[in-house]
Specification:
The chain has ten helices and nine strands. The protein is an alpha/beta fold and about 260 residues long.
Length: about 260
């Protein structure tokens, strides 16, 4: 599920843990805000598409597809896309956008994925892994459904941003959660994310059998300079998200090297 923006300290307030991350309750408002804003439409999605490159005829799993904006862009570039998300409300919006072009399934990334081994050439995980406390089982499943030579392309909250988002500062080297009330379109909703240090991220990828190919801190689309003159400079000079391209070794023997 794509996150709208990083929060300043003043907005990082405690949330009700019993009701956090309930995307079904604000799917329409979230999707509308996400569609054309600076951080998602002119920074995160373009970066993901650039890392994916030529996707024509590639079988791609959009893990945490939300209302389907990235799925639509991949489909329009010739990919054969399957989308999964834990929110039925968000998937209903994705179905409205995508029609029958994309297979959509309600799936929690903490669970077993309903796909065969090696079913996909690529997995895209757009701003979704920071909802997961233990990446191990999730990455193992994503690795399983990728063919040898396939790729996982992922974006997450930058660990430096996650570390500095609240006072007092947490232990950077520990995996910890933070909760807050997220306000957009006049609606306030409780959220929880998990932060972990950079080395824990890369260790988790390696333990799951991936090879780190690219780690990226991209710039926003230059077109955003005129559209968002006040915010563009801040986004282009401060950390926001961190992007990875992870490769599956081409054979089992290679993964043992």
């Amino acid at each position: 599920m794509e996150r709208l923006t990083n929060l300043p300290d003043s907005l990082a307030q405690p949330a009700d843990p019993a009701q956090v991350n309930d995307y079904d309750s604000f799917a329409e408002a979230y999707s509308a805000e996400n569609e054309n804003n600076l951080v998602n439409a002119y920074y995160e999605r373009p970066a993901m598409l650039a890392l994916a490159g030529d996707v024509a005829s590639r079988r791609i799993l959009d893990a945490g597809c939300g209302s389907g904006s990235l799925s639509a862009a991949l489909r329009d570039r010739g990919a054969v896309v399957t989308g999964i998300d834990a929110s039925a409300g968000m998937l209903a919006l994705a179905r409205r956008r995508l029609g029958d072009d994309v297979a959509l399934h309600v799936v929690d990334l903490s669970d077993h994925l309903p796909f065969a081994d090696g079913a996909f050439d690529d997995v895209v995980a757009s701003l979704v892994l920071h909802y997961v406390e233990d990446w191990g089982p999730t990455l193992a499943e994503l690795r399983r459904v990728l063919r040898p030579g396939g790729r996982l392309i992922a974006s997450v909250d930058h660990p430096f941003v996650a570390y500095t988002i609240q006072d007092p500062r947490p232990d950077y080297f520990a995996t910890t959660s933070y909760t807050f009330d997220w306000t957009f379109n006049g609606q306030s909703v409780p959220m929880r994310f998990w932060r972990k240090p950079l080395h824990a991220m890369t260790d988790a990828f390696t333990a799951a059998g991936f090879r780190l190919s690219v780690i990226s801190e991209p710039q926003p689309d230059p077109a955003a300079r005129e559209l968002f003159p006040d915010e563009f400079h801040a986004l282009s000079t401060k950390t926001c998200f961190l992007f990875f391209v992870l490769e599956v070794p081409p054979s089992a023997a290679d993964s043992d090297e």
